[in-house]
Design goal:
Layout: E1 10-14, E2 19-26, H1 28-35, H2 39-48, E3 55-59, E4 64-68, E5 73-79
Antiparallel strand pairs: 1-2, 2-5, 3-4, 4-5
Length: 93
């Protein structure tokens, strides 16, 4: 997503009918720093990238809007495949 790798916390839910995937997480490099307890390095890296974040954009490869916050955390949404179609007669969707 946005040319970065992120560990996998994501959720699927219905939003007024269509199924939507929501992703929230932090860049893998930042995550590894926090996992090692290297808060000082994490803060330095976040501070150095403050000119890039926050950012709100549409990622074509992901297929939906992506919001990157100043602390490096990310929230992204997208419709699951097939959710833009009209339901077939008799469908429970």
């Amino acid at each position: 997503m946005l040319g970065s790798r992120f560990p996998d916390p994501d959720h699927v839910f219905r939003l007024n009918g269509p199924r939507v995937e929501a992703f929230s997480g932090v860049d893998e490099e930042l995550f590894q720093l926090l996992a090692r307890g290297d808060v000082k390095e994490y803060r330095a890296l976040v501070h150095a990238s403050r000119h890039v974040h926050p950012r709100l954009t549409f990622d074509k490869d992901w297929g939906g809007p992506v919001s990157v916050h100043a602390d490096g955390s990310v929230l992204a949404l997208r419709l699951l495949p097939g959710q833009g179609e009209e339901p077939r007669p008799g469908s429970t969707r």
